Amino acid sequence: MNNSQGSLTDAIRKALWIVGVLWFLSWFELYLEIYRYHHATLSSVLEPLSSGMATQAHSRPGSWLRTDLICSAFAPPLFATLLLLRPTFGGREGKADLASPIVRALSLFGLLLLVLGTINQLIWRPPMAVDLTLRHGNGGFIVVGGVLALAGSTLAWRRRVK
User: Fold this and answer.
1) pLDDT of 43-95, one tens digit each?
2) Both 109 and 162 in a single domain?
3) DSSP state, residue 54
4) What gap in Å lies between CA 68 and CA 91, rounded to an integer?
Protein backbone atom coordinates (compact mmCIF):
# COMPACT_ATOMS: atom_id res chain seq x y z
CA MET A 1 0.00 0.00 0.00
CA ASN A 2 1.49 3.32 -1.01
CA ASN A 3 1.41 6.44 1.14
CA SER A 4 -1.43 8.19 -0.71
CA GLN A 5 -3.67 5.11 -0.42
CA GLY A 6 -2.86 4.87 3.30
CA SER A 7 -3.73 8.52 3.90
CA LEU A 8 -6.97 8.07 1.92
CA THR A 9 -7.87 5.06 4.07
CA ASP A 10 -7.12 7.07 7.23
CA ALA A 11 -9.23 9.97 6.00
CA ILE A 12 -12.15 7.67 5.20
CA ARG A 13 -11.79 5.98 8.59
CA LYS A 14 -11.90 9.35 10.38
CA ALA A 15 -14.86 10.48 8.26
CA LEU A 16 -16.66 7.21 9.11
CA TRP A 17 -16.22 7.87 12.82
CA ILE A 18 -17.40 11.47 12.52
CA VAL A 19 -20.44 10.56 10.41
CA GLY A 20 -21.22 7.58 12.66
CA VAL A 21 -21.19 9.74 15.77
CA LEU A 22 -23.25 12.41 13.98
CA TRP A 23 -25.74 9.72 12.92
CA PHE A 24 -26.09 8.38 16.46
CA LEU A 25 -26.40 11.83 18.04
CA SER A 26 -28.91 13.12 15.49
CA TRP A 27 -31.17 10.07 15.81
CA PHE A 28 -30.91 10.15 19.59
CA GLU A 29 -31.80 13.86 19.61
CA LEU A 30 -34.72 13.15 17.30
CA TYR A 31 -35.89 10.45 19.68
CA LEU A 32 -35.68 12.92 22.57
CA GLU A 33 -37.55 15.61 20.65
CA ILE A 34 -40.40 13.26 19.70
CA TYR A 35 -40.84 10.81 22.56
CA ARG A 36 -39.15 12.24 25.61
CA TYR A 37 -39.82 15.96 25.50
CA HIS A 38 -42.74 16.00 23.02
CA HIS A 39 -41.36 19.08 21.23
CA ALA A 40 -42.23 17.54 17.87
CA THR A 41 -44.67 14.91 16.69
CA LEU A 42 -43.80 11.94 14.54
CA SER A 43 -46.09 13.15 11.74
CA SER A 44 -44.43 16.57 11.73
CA VAL A 45 -40.99 14.97 11.49
CA LEU A 46 -42.01 12.74 8.59
CA GLU A 47 -43.20 15.76 6.60
CA PRO A 48 -40.56 18.39 7.47
CA LEU A 49 -40.77 20.43 4.29
CA SER A 50 -44.52 20.71 4.10
CA SER A 51 -46.55 23.31 5.89
CA GLY A 52 -47.84 20.55 8.17
CA MET A 53 -44.82 21.11 10.40
CA ALA A 54 -46.47 24.11 11.95
CA THR A 55 -49.66 22.93 13.59
CA GLN A 56 -50.38 26.39 14.92
CA ALA A 57 -49.44 29.83 13.68
CA HIS A 58 -46.83 30.31 16.40
CA SER A 59 -45.19 26.86 16.28
CA ARG A 60 -42.43 26.75 13.70
CA PRO A 61 -39.45 24.40 13.76
CA GLY A 62 -36.32 26.09 14.96
CA SER A 63 -32.92 25.83 13.35
CA TRP A 64 -31.89 23.14 15.85
CA LEU A 65 -34.74 20.83 14.82
CA ARG A 66 -34.21 21.53 11.12
CA THR A 67 -30.50 20.78 11.48
CA ASP A 68 -31.30 17.61 13.38
CA LEU A 69 -33.73 16.50 10.67
CA ILE A 70 -31.15 17.12 7.95
CA CYS A 71 -28.45 15.22 9.84
CA SER A 72 -30.87 12.38 10.59
CA ALA A 73 -31.73 12.08 6.91
CA PHE A 74 -28.27 12.43 5.37
CA ALA A 75 -26.00 10.68 7.89
CA PRO A 76 -27.07 7.04 7.17
CA PRO A 77 -26.57 7.18 3.36
CA LEU A 78 -23.32 9.09 3.81
CA PHE A 79 -22.11 6.48 6.30
CA ALA A 80 -23.02 3.66 3.89
CA THR A 81 -21.25 5.43 1.02
CA LEU A 82 -18.09 5.92 3.07
CA LEU A 83 -18.22 2.31 4.20
CA LEU A 84 -18.37 1.14 0.59
CA LEU A 85 -15.52 3.48 -0.41
CA ARG A 86 -13.24 2.14 2.28
CA PRO A 87 -10.76 -0.29 0.69
CA THR A 88 -10.52 -2.67 3.65
CA PHE A 89 -12.53 -3.00 6.82
CA GLY A 90 -9.54 -3.16 9.14
CA GLY A 91 -9.23 -6.93 9.21
CA ARG A 92 -6.04 -8.87 9.84
CA GLU A 93 -3.71 -9.55 6.93
CA GLY A 94 -5.78 -7.46 4.54
CA LYS A 95 -8.93 -9.57 4.83
CA ALA A 96 -12.20 -7.67 4.84
CA ASP A 97 -13.65 -8.01 8.32
CA LEU A 98 -16.86 -6.07 8.91
CA ALA A 99 -17.65 -7.76 12.24
CA SER A 100 -14.87 -6.04 14.17
CA PRO A 101 -16.14 -2.45 13.74
CA ILE A 102 -19.71 -3.59 14.40
CA VAL A 103 -18.67 -5.32 17.63
CA ARG A 104 -16.74 -2.24 18.73
CA ALA A 105 -19.67 0.04 17.88
CA LEU A 106 -22.07 -2.25 19.77
CA SER A 107 -19.85 -2.20 22.86
CA LEU A 108 -19.29 1.55 22.68
CA PHE A 109 -22.98 2.34 22.12
CA GLY A 110 -23.99 0.09 25.03
CA LEU A 111 -21.39 1.59 27.32
CA LEU A 112 -22.48 5.09 26.33
CA LEU A 113 -26.14 4.34 27.10
CA LEU A 114 -25.19 2.72 30.40
CA VAL A 115 -22.97 5.60 31.54
CA LEU A 116 -25.29 8.40 30.41
CA GLY A 117 -28.36 6.70 31.92
CA THR A 118 -26.52 6.23 35.21
CA ILE A 119 -25.29 9.85 35.26
CA ASN A 120 -28.80 11.12 34.53
CA GLN A 121 -30.20 8.91 37.30
CA LEU A 122 -27.62 10.19 39.79
CA ILE A 123 -28.18 13.85 38.89
CA TRP A 124 -31.97 14.00 38.67
CA ARG A 125 -32.82 11.10 41.02
CA PRO A 126 -36.18 10.21 39.48
CA PRO A 127 -37.87 7.03 40.67
CA MET A 128 -36.06 4.07 39.14
CA ALA A 129 -38.30 2.58 36.44
CA VAL A 130 -37.13 0.00 33.95
CA ASP A 131 -39.08 0.93 30.83
CA LEU A 132 -37.56 -0.85 27.84
CA THR A 133 -39.41 1.45 25.45
CA LEU A 134 -37.09 4.17 26.82
CA ARG A 135 -39.94 6.63 27.28
CA HIS A 136 -39.93 6.99 31.08
CA GLY A 137 -37.11 6.91 33.59
CA ASN A 138 -33.49 5.95 33.19
CA GLY A 139 -33.70 2.28 34.07
CA GLY A 140 -34.40 1.24 30.50
CA PHE A 141 -31.31 3.09 29.25
CA ILE A 142 -29.19 1.47 31.94
CA VAL A 143 -30.50 -2.05 31.25
CA VAL A 144 -30.36 -1.79 27.43
CA GLY A 145 -26.91 -0.20 27.59
CA GLY A 146 -25.63 -2.90 29.91
CA VAL A 147 -27.00 -5.68 27.71
CA LEU A 148 -25.50 -4.15 24.56
CA ALA A 149 -22.12 -3.56 26.23
CA LEU A 150 -22.12 -7.13 27.55
CA ALA A 151 -23.10 -8.53 24.14
CA GLY A 152 -20.37 -6.54 22.39
CA SER A 153 -17.75 -7.55 24.95
CA THR A 154 -18.77 -11.21 24.72
CA LEU A 155 -18.58 -11.14 20.92
CA ALA A 156 -15.16 -9.48 21.05
CA TRP A 157 -13.93 -12.03 23.58
CA ARG A 158 -15.21 -14.95 21.48
CA ARG A 159 -13.42 -13.56 18.41
CA ARG A 160 -10.14 -13.34 20.34
CA VAL A 161 -10.45 -16.87 21.70
CA LYS A 162 -10.89 -18.43 18.22
Assistant:
1) 666 665 554 444 555 556 778 888 888 888 898 888 888 877 776 544 444 44
2) yes
3) -
4) 33
Shared-domain flag, residues 53 and 120: no
Q: Domain of 153?
A: 91-162
Considering the domain architecture, whether residues 1 and 73 belong to the same structural domain is answered as: yes
Residues 76 and 97 in one domain: no
- Among candidates 59, 58, 62, 65, which has minimal Cα distance to 32? 65
Q: List pLDDT tens digits, range 81-109.
A: 887 777 654 444 444 455 677 788 888 88
For residues 145 and 80, membership in a common domain is answered with no
Judged by phi (left if over 0) then psi (alpha if -120 to 50, else beta), residue 60 lies in beta
Read off the pTM.
0.52
First to last CA, the chain: 28
